[in-house]
Amino acid sequence: MRAEERRKEIIALLMASKTPISGGALSERLGVSRQIIVQDIAIIKAAGYDILSTHTGYMMQESPLVERVFKVRHTGEQTAEELTCIVELGGTVVDVFVWHKVYGKISADLNIFSQRGIDQFVAGIRSGKSTELMHITDGYHYHTVRADSEHTLDIIEGELRGRGYIVPEIQ
């Protein structure tokens, strides 16, 4: 794993966690030394992320990133293309959720921010062990997408709309 990808993974892990994550746990998960994690945290902090170092680990204070929820619909064959569109334009696919008429909201955390993450997700689905949540709602589903600015989210939304994935709002 390259340094830039590792730092993105650290950011994603810290943003997804409600409790501190120890440097040891990060180094074990990412396959690098504790010293590399300390260096990565310093670089991430210098980039503007508000990371608090506690005696029990690191935690994100406040995210400099913005989020938007997109209601989308596509086929299972288009999943990789949809995710790639978001990631290549600078977004992180935080989660996926559907609104079931009986169960209500059903969601799953994804935290996909790289091609590697897309490949792992798609491989997991294609293995046949499970299916995507969208299949229980005829392809309709939602993604929370995180990016560095509203402008980036606007670009992502425009591209998703251009590909026909955004569900038009009913007036």
Q: What structural class do you assign from the helix and strand content?
A: alpha+beta
Nearest-angstrom radius of gyration? 17 Å
The major β-sheet equals: 4 strands, antiparallel
Distance between the termini: 46 Å
Please specify the SSE layout and strand pairing.
Elements: H1 3-16, H2 23-30, H3 34-46, E1 50-54, E2 57-62, E3 66-73, H4 79-88, E4 92-100, E5 104-112, H5 115-126, E6 140-147, H6 150-162
Antiparallel strand pairs: 1-2, 3-6, 4-5, 4-6
What report would you give on this structure?
The protein has 171 residues and is of the alpha+beta class. The protein is built from six helices and six strands; from the N terminus they run H-H-H-E-E-E-H-E-E-H-E-H. The protein has helices at residues 3-16, 23-30, 34-46, 79-88, 115-126, 150-162, and strands spanning 50-54, 57-62, 66-73, 92-100, 104-112, 140-147. A hairpin with a 3-residue loop joins strand 4 (92-100) and strand 5. It is globular, with a radius of gyration of 17 Å. The termini are far apart. The mean pLDDT is 91.
